[in-house]
Amino acid sequence: MVDAPPSSSGSAPFWETKALEELTEEEWESLCDGCGRCCLVKVEDEETGARIDTRLACRLLDIGACRCSDYANRHEQVPDCVRLTPQTARDLDWLPDTCAYRLRAEGKRLYWWHPLRSGDPETVHQAGISVRHIAMSETKAAGRNYEDYAMRPREGRAAARRVVKRRARKRR
């Protein structure tokens, strides 16, 4: 996979040159890599405040596509759905460390598998970053203890790092 070609003016792509606040709505939306990780249910221990990531996906997530099935109305349908802004991208510590919004808020580059870099929306799935093969709808767990669906710490992320390291070795 190669980086997106420079614009006709020879400059770097918008995601490398613009601050999050400067992005158009279309540019902002294109930063989403389609991994679905932000749509996984997180459980907080009321006593310790510890967060547990689960394999359970929001009822609106189309797990196969890793996209919201009612994106335009998601905040009405799911009141606790977080509205991502440049500020929340900086503040939310639970955003995946592979999330383009988080990466750009931290001044980091997008990974090779991001659709903006690869030109292919399937690379996020091929790289093992998405929840396509690990998630299940929260509706299937109704009445059950969400902790039963807890992911091991950094589950999925370690696989992503292995893929990135393997890819980095191939480039040498």
Automatic annotation (TrEMBL):
This is UPF0260 protein BXY53_1883. The lineage of its organism: Bacteria, Pseudomonadati, Pseudomonadota, Alphaproteobacteria, Hyphomicrobiales. It comes from the Bacteria. Transmembrane segments: none annotated. Belongs to the UPF0260 family. Signal peptide: none annotated.
